[in-house]
Design brief:
With 212 residues, this protein is an alpha+beta fold. It has helices at 5-16, 21-28, 32-40, 47-57, 61-65, 70-75, and strands at residues 94-95, 104-105, 116-119, 133-138, 148-153, 159-166, 169-173, 184-187, 196-207. Helix 1 (5-16) crosses helix 3 (32-40).
Amino acid sequence: MERSATGRNIKALRENNDLTQTEFAEKVGVTITTVSGWETRNIPPRQKMLAHIAELFGVSVDDLVSESGYLAKRSGISAATDPAQAKPVPADSFLHVEGGEEPIPCPAKYCREGNFFVTQEDESMNLAFAPGSHVLIDTSRDVADGDLALAEVGGGSPILRRLKLTDGLAILSPESTSDSFHRIVVDQTDPNAPSLRFLGRAVYASMDFGRR
């Protein structure tokens, strides 16, 4: 499901103010389920609530509901270049490999502005991707429970892990034949928990057979 402009703007407003969904819910006087509905299930706030949120955070109602609203203004992008609205590029196009020199071809379905490849270097996901694989990261949709997510934890380097979302917890699990990799659990309701940022979801992998 593609998130509404309102959902994207409210999420951007919350995150820019360093608030968890729980903290944001308490501040505006609703439940965490309500906030989650606004952000991820396209359930719009009532007009009175929009006005309340706008007043609390010093923004306009238009900032909360417009395609060119809060998210676009904070990101310095127009609605047309919002990742969720990105247009496909030609099917024979190539996408950039993070940290690499040569772009590589991508499937037409996912060859979109804003998407990119990363190289899976270690064995942490070797049941999903062979080490050395170029993994295509789709940024046009939010990551969801069960996705292979590219995430930054505590400001560290991005990692690919299987994502499980349950009861306010984000669980990032390796899929490996090695027991040297361990799952990471982040309590998203705990203000003292490490920061967690999702960069996108893995949708395709291409092995570079020239690697040794």
